[in-house]
């Protein structure tokens, strides 16, 4: 028995619905987690996605900005929305599903980008991002007895040296500054999370999920960052069979600047 979970910052689900539908037809994951859906709950294309077999959908939307959703072939229960930093943004949703006799809590996050200046004194957006990460440190992969956990999403931080195209040149760029990377690694440590994307790909190898719209030829420049993540509780990590990063999606018609990342699990 296998399980496939995809995370994808879609950068407007209504604008990019055609590529979402195409991806689901081609890849057919069991669960699709979307970030930055940029719509309110009643504007989400439920009918179109349900028509492809994803009849279990939970949404935490917001007008024009942010927003996350979980679209699943498997039943979803006990959905929860956490208001990180108490500002009313729609940046988190979670739900329970069952697979291979296991009960699993799936978290879907869209962490604030943090603006352009890595200084909270002059850039409130950066301060908000640091506060958000600080609150995430309280989230444990072992929070619910008898329940495994998976955390996915656009975390807007590339924590390791080879998660960016140039570690040296990125140290003062938001998403790879030491205060951010150390903060995210501490979220993993304190919460007992396992970085599944690096389980089969050594930390010494480059690994990207995002390429800027600003690059004239993104593929030739290949100045990417690993901003999208899939983590799990320790009991699930041995079941991971592979991670697929669909780089070609960055070159699709009207693409997101992020590409889908899919984790495949195989029951023991």
Structure, explained:
There is one protein chain. The protein has helices at 17-27, 46-50, 124-136, 167-170, 178-191, 218-221, and strands at residues 2-9, 31-35, 56-60, 68-72, 77-80, 92-99, 102-110, 148-154, 194-195, 210-211, 224-225, 228-232, 240-245, 261-266. The protein is 19% helix and 28% strand. The protein is an alpha+beta fold. The protein has 6 helices and 14 strands. The mean pLDDT is 97. Helix 3 (124-136) runs parallel beside helix 5 (178-191). Strands 3-4-2-1-14-13 form a 6-stranded mixed β-sheet.
Tell me briefly what this model is.
This is Exodeoxyribonuclease III. Residues 7-258 form the Endonuclease/exonuclease/phosphatase domain. The protein is an alpha+beta fold.
The end-to-end span amounts to 9 Å
- Name the beta content range: 25-35%
Estimated helix fraction: 10-25%
Compute the gyration radius: what is it? 17 Å
Q: How many beta-strand segments? A: 14
Strand-pairing-aware structural class: alpha+beta
Protein name: Exodeoxyribonuclease III
Family: Belongs to the DNA repair enzymes AP/ExoA family.
Cofactor: Mg(2+)
Domain Endonuclease/exonuclease/phosphatase: 7-258
List the helices and strands and how they pair.
Blueprint: E1 2-9, H1 17-27, E2 31-35, H2 46-50, E3 56-60, E4 68-72, E5 77-80, E6 92-99, E7 102-110, H3 124-136, E8 148-154, H4 167-170, H5 178-191, E9 194-195, E10 210-211, H6 218-221, E11 224-225, E12 228-232, E13 240-245, E14 261-266
Record keyword descriptors for this entry.
AP_endonuclease_F1_BS; hydrolase; 268 residues; 28% strand; alpha+beta; 6-stranded mixed beta sheet; magnesium; 6 helices
């Amino acid at each position: 028995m296998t399980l496939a979970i995809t995370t994808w910052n879609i950068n407007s689900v209504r604008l990019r619905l055609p590529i979402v539908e195409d991806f689901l037809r081609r890849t057919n994951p069991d669960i699709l987690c979307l970030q930055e859906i940029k719509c309110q709950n009643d504007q989400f294309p439920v009918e179109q996605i349900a028509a492809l077999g994803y009849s279990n959908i939970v949404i935490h939307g917001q007008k024009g900005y942010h927003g996350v959703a979980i679209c699943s072939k498997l039943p979803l229960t006990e959905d929860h929305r956490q208001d990180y930093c108490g500002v009313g943004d729609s940046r988190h949703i979670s739900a329970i599903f069952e697979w291979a006799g296991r009960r699993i809590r799936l978290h879907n996050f869209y962490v604030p980008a943090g603006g352009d200046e890595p200084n909270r004194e002059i850039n409130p957006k950066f301060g908000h991002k640091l506060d958000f990460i600080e609150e995430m440190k309280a989230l444990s992969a072992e929070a619910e007895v008898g329940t495994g956990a998976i955390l996915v999403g656009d975390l807007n931080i590339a924590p390791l040296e080879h998660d960016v195209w140039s570690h040296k040149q990125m140290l003062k760029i938001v998403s790879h500054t030491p205060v951010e990377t150390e903060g995210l690694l501490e979220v993993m440590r304190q919460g007992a999370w396992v970085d599944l994307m690096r389980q089969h790909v050594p930390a010494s190898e480059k690994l990207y999920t995002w390429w800027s719209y600003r690059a004239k030829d993104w593929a030739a420049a290949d100045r990417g960052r690993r901003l999208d993540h899939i983590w799990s509780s320790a009991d699930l990590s041995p079941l991971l069979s592979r991670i697929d990063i669909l780089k070609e999606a960055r070159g699709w018609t009207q693409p997101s600047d992020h590409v889908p990342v899919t984790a495949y699990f195989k029951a023991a």
